Amino acid sequence: MIPDLPQGPENVRLEKKMNRIAVVLSVVILLLVVMMRRIKFDFGIDFSFLAPFHASLNALTSIVLIFALYFILIGNIQMHKRCIYSALLLSVMFLLSYVLYHFTTVETKYCGEGEIRYLYFFLLISHIVLAAGILPFIFFTFIRGYTGQYDRHRRIARWIWPLWFYVSITGPICYLMLAPCMKP
């Protein structure tokens, strides 16, 4: 069982501390993502096996987010919390895998032609922009729920959940569209 924190001023202090950590984490992650396009490391290991792994993590996140929504809609707060913790854990695992992959592996260029190419780049660009933009808001939404500020949590979650879901589902779609272009 996931305990509820008591309401009060100590939660406001906790929220402020957690918000600062969320901002720092968001900035560090965004800097890593920018750097991974420019810097490559060679550890003597082929990390190309990570591409389907992090696409799978993203797909699992999508499924867990659907369950999180379902449980909150039926009023099962404990299961909702478990799903959100799971989605966060899957997202962290994805992020670690994704960053390692892109720091060590040359990018695959999309090989599709025609209208499917436009769809791929639309999905990819919207995925990247939203992923970068919503990261701190996912943290803030979690923090508001964690610190018992449920009204504030609900207000922001209504906007963040669909965006997080979109990002988590378009990642595997982009991977599947790119997979035929990957070298064996």
- Which stretches of 5+ consecutive residues score pLDDT under 50? none
Task: Determine the N-to-C terminus distance.
Answer: 45 Å
What share of the residues does DSSP label as strand, in percent?
A: under 5%
- Average pLDDT reading: 88
Order of helices and strands: HHHHH
Helix percent band: over 70%
CA radius of gyration: 18 Å
How would you summarize this macromolecular structure in one to three sentences?
The chain has helices at 9-36, 50-73, 77-104, 115-146, 150-178. With 184 residues, it is mostly helical.
Can you walk me through this structure?
By secondary structure, the chain is mainly alpha-helical. 77% of the residues lie in helices and 0% in strands. The protein is built from five helices and no strands. The N and C termini lie far apart (45 Å). The mean pLDDT is 88.
